[in-house]
């Protein structure tokens, strides 16, 4: 498992991306809420409700 923190231009944490090593990568808000996931096997990104966002890894587009 690996984590990558995402920062704004002032250095404030705005989210984090967590790769669990099984082909699923999740994005979390700075408060720890899951915002969505990327499934490598099908090359699709889903929002927190399971709706398709699009093809490819679009996780950072889910940050609010």
Which structural class should the secondary elements be placed in? mainly beta
Shape: globular
Low-pLDDT segments, ≥5 res: none
Distance between the termini: 24 Å
How many domains, in number, for the residues? 1
Radius of gyration: 11 Å
Order of helices and strands: EEEEEE
Instruction: Please state how the strands of the largest beta sheet are arranged side by side.
Output: 1-2-3-4-5-6
Q: What oligomeric state best describes the polypeptide chains here?
A: single chain
| Share of residues in strands | over 45%
Most strands sheet: 6 strands, antiparallel
The count of DSSP E runs of length 2 or more, i.e. the number of strands, is 6
Count up the helices: 0
Provide the helix percentage: under 10%
How would you state the average pLDDT, rounded? 97
